[in-house]
Amino acid sequence: MVTSLPNLLTLSRIVVIPLVVGLFYVDGDAARWAACVLFVIAAITDWFDGYVARSRNLVSTFGRFLDPIADKLLVAAVLFMLVAFDRVSTVSFLPALVIVLREILVSGLREFLAEVRVGMPVSKLAKWKTGIQMVAIPVLLVGDAATFMPTRVIGEVGLWIAAILTMVTGWDYLRSGWGHIVANPVAKD
User: 93-115 and 151-183 helices cross at what angle (nearest 10)?
Assistant: First the structure.
């Protein structure tokens, strides 16, 4: 059911992406704070939609499909914009790239494993990675608008920590799925 509360919350994360991206093109601190607030609200809906779906037994096929996609689209779009608008140092392009590439790798792995009917639950370490990432990104969105703290340093350190955890969890997922990949070769024509 697309109209359940969890699915609507998931869809709201996709709807907020063009708004956050559009705010990069607006000058001023208010736009940075607005982008931060929208991102934080979207991050909270990620937690809240899962909680509501599980607690009210509203888990749906649509939600299971769209929820991880919404998360990855939001994070990838914002990381791309942070890099494009020089809101992170050149050296921090690397953790942004690592995060996006790992998300693509894990998505492909999950898709393959679903075809062979193998589940791949989210690990606790991956949840920590997501939490750190969801704190680092809004800090970077605010950037220089927060004159009371070194936001770029804090955000970039968080991004690097998230990227390290991203590599660890990506390797764990790949290692766990590798046996299934090898055991299910594609038949040659």
Answer: 30
DSSP notation for 67-111: HHHHHHHHHHHHHHHHHHTT-S-GGGHHHHHHHHHHHHHHHHHHH
Cα gap 102→8, rounded to integer Å: 27
> Could you give the dihedral angle defined by the CA atoms of residues 91, 94, 95 and 97, in that order, rounded to the nearest 10 degrees?
140
All structural domains of the chain: 5-183 (1.20.120.1760)
Closest CA to 121 of 185, 42, 176, 166: 176
Task: Report CA torsion sign: 128, 131, 137, 140.
Answer: negative
Between 61-84 and 5-23, two packed helices, what is the crossing angle to 10 degrees? Answer: 10
Number of other residues whose CB lies within 10 A of the CB of residue 146: 18
Tally Cβ neighbours within 10 Å of residue 139: 21
For 37-56, the pLDDT digits (tens) are 999 999 998 888 877 877 88
pTM comes to 0.88
**What H or E segment, with its residue span, contains residue 155?**
helix 151-183
